[in-house]
Amino acid sequence: FSEAERILLRIVEGNSDLELSDEEDQDALFEPEAEEDDSGSSEDEIQAGQADTEESDQAEQCSRRPLWSRNSNVLFPFSRFKFQVDDPAIVENNDVMTRENWTPMDYFKQYIDDSVFERMALCTNQRAILESGATLTTTSEELKTFFGISIYMGCLGYPNIQMYWASNTRVQVVAESMTRNRFYRLRNSIKIINDLDVSDDEKRSDLLWKIRPLLAKVSMYQPHQLGWSLDFVVYQGKTTFGDTGGMGIGEKAVLHLAESVPQGTHLFFDRFFTTINLLDTLKMKGLTGTGTLMSNRIPKECKIIGDKPFKKKERGASEMVVRRSPPELAVIKWLDNKPVVMASSAYGIEPQDIRTRWSKKDKRFVQVPRPLAIAEYNTNMGGVDLVDRMLSFYRMASRTRKWTVRAVLHFCDLAITNSWLHANDSVDDYTPPRQKWKPQPNEALRHYGAIHLPEMVDETHASRCRRSNCMSKTYVMCTKCKVFLCVSKKGNCFLKYHSK
Q1: Are the C-beta atoms of residues 322 and 301 closer than 8 Å to each other?
Q2: Predicted confidence band at 73 (pLDDT cuts at 50, 70, 90)?
Q3: Is 391:413 a contact under the CB 8 Å cutoff?
Q4: Which residues are bridge partners to 397 per DSSP?
Q5: How far apart are CA 466 and CA 172, in angstroms?
Q6: What is the mean pLDDT of residues 135-164?
Q7: Distance CA 299, CA 274 (A)
Q8: What gap in Å lies between CA 453 and CA 480, rounded to an integer?
Q9: Mean pLDDT computed over every residue of the chain
Q10: Within the chain, what is the greatest distance between any pair of CA atoms?
């Protein structure tokens, strides 16, 4: 331990005996070396030797001190990281401003561009020649039509693909774009790579070699805003991450995916992934993290309060145990309806905010303090959940036994979902913590079919609703029909009036 380190350590431990003036502090931290004297040991050397002995004794005492200490405040507050655009090319080209008016299609082309469809058409035709001796004569434009039809089918959600061409359930935009047999043939023949170009060794070492070019393309575009699927890895069993080095599958997954983010980024993950070892490893890579922590993963040296005595405290109580040795780490326990344990290398308890909670015991709303780590976790967690939820809404029809086709359609869905989130998110919002997403449709979709719109009329008295059997009065009038129609919680006559 140097003199400066000992001083800082004593300050952290709250040692009030250390009171140095500015001059004394300068002398302690920057003491000049004693000049050599040929006449023998000088008084300065003797004092220096005694100081070295005292310093070694103090260092030995420091090494025996516990690494974890219970404290409600962080004397050296964990830093808030601000994401910065440091790519010279992007700053120079002012790419942030040019993306402001991008449509979802512009973002989609950053994932899957024309070269992907051209490669897919070439490989699909080559496959057909190898199997039947005749080319399929498909083109990149026809494959774009195929994927467009698949997207449309995913939105309509018919239980059977043949229904889109059947006479009673025929969908014109689908049936007129491509015949049913051609659609099936393309779907069964889609290839993204030529099998002859891949060696046997590559096939044995990579289980996903059949779709590898598409995976590389979809994960290549990495925008500077974080909050959606930035990178992914397809799980292939125990061999997915190779030798885990004693780490669990969750830890290894986070470390693998964290290779795509720049230093200074803060990561949030749930209890399946969070471990003290993971947070330490991320900190060594220049990344910080926050996540809920399982009770059986709390280190024995971390003497945080148990659940039983903690539940006796008032709702909103919190306790934190801090590990001061580098890298800094905090374990926070907070009492809401039940105890919640979190580990963070960036946030502690303070500053707390106040949240409103319903108390079953008191039958009323109560004000509950909430630690900073909990607030940041609740604000930033859920980006992957949002993508998964949006993927599930209009997933492409992929009822086929070929896993390659299902994989190609899935990653196309992923690119579409990411593109939608890109286009509907604020390009100026670079600084975490991010607010919850409120996606909005683009301008073209918002204005599509905008004919019958409600308008609040500035009249002295309300007018009778013109929908039959409605006795209500309203100030809302249709801008197209010029009739008054009520809009309320009891009944939406405006919507019913314009619906078949």
Answers
A1: no
A2: low
A3: yes
A4: none
A5: 35
A6: 90
A7: 13
A8: 7
A9: 76
A10: 116
Which residues partner with 357 through β-bridges?
Answer: 366
Model pLDDT for residues 151-195, shown as the tens digit of each residue: 888 888 888 889 999 989 999 999 999 999 999 999 988 999 988
**Which of 19-28, 146-155, 470-479 has the weakest average pLDDT?**
19-28
SS (H, E, C) the chain: CCHHHHHHHHHHCCCCCCCCCHHHHHHHHCCCCCCCCCCCCCHHHHHHHHHHHHHHHHHHHHHCCCCEEECCCCCCCCCCCCCCCCCHHHHHHCHHHHHHHCCHHHHHHHHCCHHHHHHHHHHHHHHHHHHHCCCCCCCHHHHHHHHHHHHHHHHHCCCCHHHHCCCCCCCHHHHCCCCHHHHHHHHHHCCCCCHHHCCHHHHHHCCCCCCHHHHHHHCCCCCCCCCCCCCCCCCCCCCCCCCCCCCCHHHHHHHHHHHHCCCCCEEEECCCCCCHHHHHHHHHCCCEEEEECCHHHCCCCCCCCCHHHHHCCCCCCEEEEEECCCCCEEEEEEECCCEEEEEECCCCCCCCEEEEEEECCCCEEEEEEECHHHHHHHHHCCHHHHHHHHHHHCCCCCCCCCHHHHHHHHHHHHHHHHHHHHHCCCCCCCCCCCCCCCCCCCHHHHCCCCCCCEEECCCCCCEECCCCCCCCEECEEECCCCCECCECCCCEHHHHHCCC
Q: How far apart are CA 491 and CA 496, in angstroms?
A: 9
Q: From CA 355, how far away is CA 439, in angstroms rounded?
A: 25
